[in-house]
Amino acid sequence: MKGWETLLAERESDDHFVVEGQLAVERLLQSGYEVIKTIRIGEELSREEASKLLGYHFHRGYLAIARKPAQPELGDFGEGPLVVLPEIADPGNLGTIIRNAAALGASGVLLGKGASPFNAKAIRASAGNLFRLLVRRSPNLLADLKIIAQSRTIIGTDLGKGSIPFSELAPLSQDVALILGPEDFGISEEIRSLCDYLTYLPMTRGVDSLNVASSSAIFLHELSR
Question: Phi/psi at 215 (nearest 5 deg)?
């Protein structure tokens, strides 16, 4: 096994990841994740040494190295909305969506392409809630969605033709898979074809969309009602 200094310098691999900050490290330790090492800056490692290993100026007091868990199966997601992110590029947005999902009763997050939930920025933005929520990186998102469609209503957020305001959706009789597409080009035609509903949040004053993380909070709050 590689030494912890090497793992820290790599920051993230197929098997491990690095956690920064006291709150995130505490929540990691409270979880079922396997922790390889915890480090308090100023004891085993100085701030300067940590910055050199990580490759950027590190100003936090705690670090930890943990092993990535096994991928959850689709059947592991319980009751509550399932947030689906086909392609999210920004780890900060991803972490904020994970935090919103945990706070607003989602059963988990299903990812396609894009940022890793184990990126240090994503973990910070999630306030450590990554360790409290099931997150699956789908090997084949379309195939997963076809399976999900058998037990969940699939709602795609989209500004295109055929979309209706979220407030006009009919009452839902089963759990939802909420698809949040990229802000620049939305969800693909293949994914649109799998949706039971296409919806959007009406805007005022000529604003056509919200940041995807902000939108996730509004949609999840409304679904919880």
Answer: -60, -40
Contact residues for 75 (Cβ-Cβ < 8 A; gap 6+): none
pTM of the model: 0.92
**How far, in Å, CA of 225 to CA of 221, rounded?**
7
Distance of CA 113 to the CA centre of its chain: 12
Task: State whether the Cα torsion 92-106-127-124 is positive or negative.
Answer: negative
- The answer to whether residues 140 and 209 belong to one domain is yes
Alpha-carbon torsion, ordered 193, 172, 222, 110, to 10 deg:
-50
Residue 11 domain boundaries = 4-67
Q: How far apart are the first and last CA of the chain?
A: 49
The DSSP call for residue 150 is T
Asked if residue 50 and residue 79 are part of one domain, the reply reads: no
Give the pLDDT confidence of 162-181 residue by residue, as tens digits.
Answer: 888 888 888 887 899 999 98
